[in-house]
Every structure is written in structure tokens, then in C-alpha cells.
Amino acid sequence: MGNLTARGEKMGAQGAPVGRFAPSPTGVLHLGNLRTALASWLSAKSRDGKWILRIEDVDLTRCRSAWAERQIRDLAALGLESDEPVLRQSDRCEAYGEALERLHAAGFLYACACSRRDLALLASAPHAEDGLRPYPGTCRQGRLEALRPDALRFRLPEGEVAWTDLVLGDQRDDPQDLTGDPLLHRRDGCFAYHLAVVVDDGFQGITEVLRGADLRGVTAAQIRLQEALGLPRPAYAHLALVQAPGGARLGKRGGALGVQELFAGGIGIPEILGRLGHSLGCLDRPEPCAAQELVASFAWDRVPDRGGSPSRLETLGEWI
Ligand code: GLU
Fold first, then answer.
1. If you measure from the C-alpha of residue 19 to the centroid of ligand 1, how many angstroms do you get, rounded to a whole number?
2. Ligand 1 centre and the CA of 24: distance in Å?
3. Over the stretch 203-242, which tens digit does the pLDDT of each residue have?
């Protein structure tokens, strides 16, 4: 597999960046999602790169195409349009199946017989990272003779993974402590998020993955999966989460404010962009502007989230 880190970094340095925003269509994009989308667009555009929108609708039980259309429309209203046709993960099952076959042939997969109840019991155990409970490897010793439509997990190779996050700096995690062996295929026939995201980032030649800090803890497991599939490693940037006053988390399904609601409330697109641009360090003051006007002043070393201090997010808070 060679030196994948070096290969990934070299690719990023030589060519123009390819960034992506990859929402799951489970609801309306909220301000935190819009901020991540804008940052990924600015990061790519400020270095003459390409920006791709990907709809992560692999979980058919939670996703709705009406939400996907709404998300695409809301992003376009901000001036963020995909440089490639929008990829939908629901169209990519063949590629995920092929990836599973390769992983199986290399001995990385095992079938997991744990019930939801078994896993829920584990969820009551305390854990360092919010919301993440590592799978303890209950079924890991089992042999998988033939690939079958079952719950399938990736047997993580041992050891820590180090990467440099564009926002958080040097990171080092043992994925066994965070996710445990990730689920790649579900018993109900759906391919799982970890598989789809890694296969598609590789397929689309993504060189930088921007997403919310709530996904920081899955990065090490995804890097291991990339390595197993022989895919290059993109750069990662985990942006601070925009919180509601009082610290509550925004959710796509929680009725958080989206562009259309802000618009209906008399707040214009230029004003939204001004606030988001200010929160990303592109503007000294949150003055109304167009997305294109923020491109020249975007730089990672100006993004206030760096080092974990989201100092300018409060300018968004009053809208929530
Ligand atoms: N689809 C995921 C979400 O909407 C994001 C995945 C990623 O950016 O890696 O939360």
C-alpha cells in the first residue's frame, strides 16, 4: 500500500484542491451546516480548486429526496453550486458492493450478530467523545467464509493513526477506542456511512474533507479504511459546531433555522453570507456580501476555530 500519507499530501500540494460538502438529506441545512458548506467552498475556490456537492442518502430509512432538493436549492441560493453533477449515494450501491468484495478478499470483514439491544447496553457505558461508543469487538473472532447480506464490520488494524487537521492541528487517535470496528453493511441491506464516505471521497478525487467537529472521532477509522482500500488520504478540517444559546446542539431535524426561514424572517442572503464570512475570519465586520467576495480573503490561518476557540460564532447565535 506504500506511503499513503505522503501520497495524499503530495497530491494535494501538486494539483488544485478538490473539496466537497456532503450533507445527509435528513432535514433542512442549519446555520452550522451552511457555515461548513461555505468554508469548504471558500477553501477550494481560494486556491482555484473544484467544489463538489454530494448527497449522502445511503441510509434510505432516514433520508428523503425532498430534503436533498431543498438542500441543493438552499446552497445555490448562497451561490454555492457544485462544479460536477451532484452525486447521490443511493446511485452508488454497485461501487460499495465492489469495495466490500475487495475488503472481504483481503480478510478485513466479519459478520456481526450483535442485536440493537446488545449495542444499546454498551451505550450506557461512559465514554470520552460525545455520542461515540466503540464497538467492543464481540464478534471479531468469527470467520466469514462467503460475503453475505449481513451486518458486516471492518476489522481495524491495530495501532494509532496520526493526521494533521487544518483546524485542530496535530491529531492522534486509536480508532479502536473511538468507533471500534466500524459497521460497513447493515443487516437491513443498506451500506453504512463509513464505507460510502470513504469510497466516494476516493472515487471523486477529494483532497480536502471539511465537516463538523462532531465527526472528528470517526476520522481515524476512516483513514484505516482508506488504507485498506488503497485510497489516498485527503486533508481533514473539523470546524466548530454552531450552538444554540445555552449550548444546545443544532440538528437538521430539530427545526433549526435554514436559509428559507431566515429569508422569510426578513434576513437577506447577503446578510447571511456576511455573518458566515465574518465567523470564518474573512471579514472584520459582518457586512452583507456575496460568496464570491469572500474568496480572496479566505485563509485557513484566519479561521477563528483553529486551536478550538470558535470566538466569532456568537455573531450567529442571535438568529437561532
Ligand atoms: N453526511 C454527513 C452528515 O451530513 C457528513 C459526512 C462527512 O462529511 O464526512 O453529517
1. 13
2. 6
3. 999 999 999 998 999 999 999 999 999 999 999 999 988 8
170-194 pLDDT tens trace: 999 999 999 999 999 999 889 999 9
| Reported pTM | 0.90
Q: Which helix (H) or strand (E) holds 183?
A: strand 183-185
> For ligand 1, what atom is nearest to the CA of residue 197?
9
Give me the long-range contacts of 251-257 (CB less than 8 A, separation at least 24).
251/27, 251/30, 252/23, 252/24, 252/26, 252/27, 252/28, 252/29, 252/30, 252/33, 252/67, 253/26, 253/27, 254/27, 254/30, 256/28, 256/30, 256/31, 256/32, 256/320, 257/30, 257/31, 257/319, 257/320
d(CA 259, CA 269): 8
Check if 211 has its Cβ closer than 6 Å to any atom of ligand 1.
yes
